[in-house]
Specification:
By secondary structure, this protein is an alpha/beta fold. The protein has 13 helices and 11 strands. The protein has a 7-stranded mixed sheet, sandwiched between helices. It has a two-stranded antiparallel ribbon with strand order 7-8. The structure holds glycine (GLY).
Length: 361
């Protein structure tokens, strides 16, 4: 990859508790040093990445930082969800201490959602907060987890149970990095993109139905980030409208948990979206055609629409979701493609909703 500052990336500005830009384009890892210099005086940076992503892009990022006078060291962890364990979080903090980072220095997350969540939480807590830059390399991280400031690690009792809202100073979505994305990871990212179409953008839904996401990465990522920006600017702390981004996630998280995290996030969300939409049809909240179009699109991206988990276990796992309120859950329900709303489902009705959402229910 060669430097192409002349080939300007797309830009989306986010005005949350911190204002920052999301840049989307090819070659941004190679340009990271100059781009970061424009927003930070850091002298040092820790790069947080896993053992799959770092060998692909770590040297390019380190060299770019070095050219802009930013000394860096990499904290590389074994890939997978265990990267978000309390032990890994603690050893990252010790690594940062050993580097003698100060508050003007930076943490860069290079990779997917695990690197972003772990790195963001470490950046928000080390010295009560140091500079943070997201350099997502997966489609899912580009369109969702790198934007909006949610950071977290896992507790033995559940996923993302310790976390913070901590906005990055800059997000660099290098679309060239998506060229090395395995097919399964591509499909996972597409599930979140389908979600954006369902909750707020029928044109995006139609666009990705008629032309594969991979033929149009930058514009599709921009459409998703622009929508996410609107939710985050209205409701940064996730007390209201931001909950719509949770469409498919309550059932999805239940599927992930029951599979002991063997079903990846995007596939689980696909199952969750299909299940809730079938339930909405059966309860008279939306047309049959909404469920048919959703399932056709998910299937075209190789995503599942059903799980082998039994309905009682699914309902129970939904009710233990960290977002459960007063014993029930706010399920995000589609009204049509491009419009969803929250509906409170009390605990005693959950099994009925899940059963209504089964393919053969
Ligand atoms: N991933 C959902 C949110 O950021 O609110």
């Amino acid at each position: 990859m060669k430097s192409e500052l002349s080939n300007e990336p797309m830009r989306v500005g986010v005005k949350a508790s911190r204002a920052y830009e999301v840049l989307i384009g090819r070659g941004l890892i190679d340009q990271a040093g100059q781009r970061i210099r424009a927003v930070s005086n850091a002298k040092k940076a820790v790069i947080v990445s896993d053992d799959v992503v770092f060998p692909l892009y770590g040297a390019l990022l380190e060299s770019s930082l070095g050219k802009s006078g930013i000394e860096s060291a990499a904290y590389v962890f074994y890939h997978g969800e265990d990267g978000k364990s309390l032990q890994n979080y603690a050893s990252l903090l010790e690594f940062m201490s050993d580097m003698r980072l100060n508050r003007d220095d930076l943490l860069l997350s290079l990779g997917g959602g695990v690197a972003g969540d772990l790195g963001g939480f470490a950046a928000s807590t080390f010295l009560r907060g140091i500079g943070f830059v997201q350099v997502p390399t997966s489609l899912l991280a580009d369109v969702d987890s790198s934007v909006g400031g949610k950071t977290a690690v896992n507790l033995p009792s559940g996923k993302n149970r310790a976390g913070s809202f901590y906005q990055p100073m800059l997000v660099l979505c290098d679309t060239a990095a998506l060229e090395t994305l395995p097919e399964r990871e591509y499909a996972n990212g597409c599930a979140e993109i389908v979600k954006y179409g369902m909750i707020g953008d029928e044109a995006l839904f139609d666009k990705i139905a008629s032309r594969p996401v991979k033929e149009n990465y930058a514009k599709v990522i921009r459409a998703c980030v622009e929508m996410k920006k609107r939710f985050v600017e209205q409701d940064e702390r996730d007390r209201g409208v931001r909950a719509l981004l949770n469409f498919g996630h309550t059932v999805g998280h239940a599927v992930e948990k029951l599979s002991e995290y063997r079903v990846p996030h995007g596939r689980a969300v696909a199952i969750g979206m299909a299940c809730v939409t079938r339930a909405a049809v059966r309860k008279g909240l939306c047309e049959e055609s909404t469920a048919e179009r959703l399932e056709a699109l998910l299937t075209s991206y190789g995503l599942p629409c059903e799980t082998a988990c039994d309905s009682a276990s699914l309902a129970e796992a939904c009710l233990s979701d960290k977002k459960a309120v007063n014993g029930g859950v706010n399920l995000i329900m589609p009204e049509r493609i491009g419009a969803c709303r929250a509906l409170y489902v009390p605990s005693n009705e959950m099994i009925d909703w899940i059963s209504a959402g089964r393919k053969n229910g």
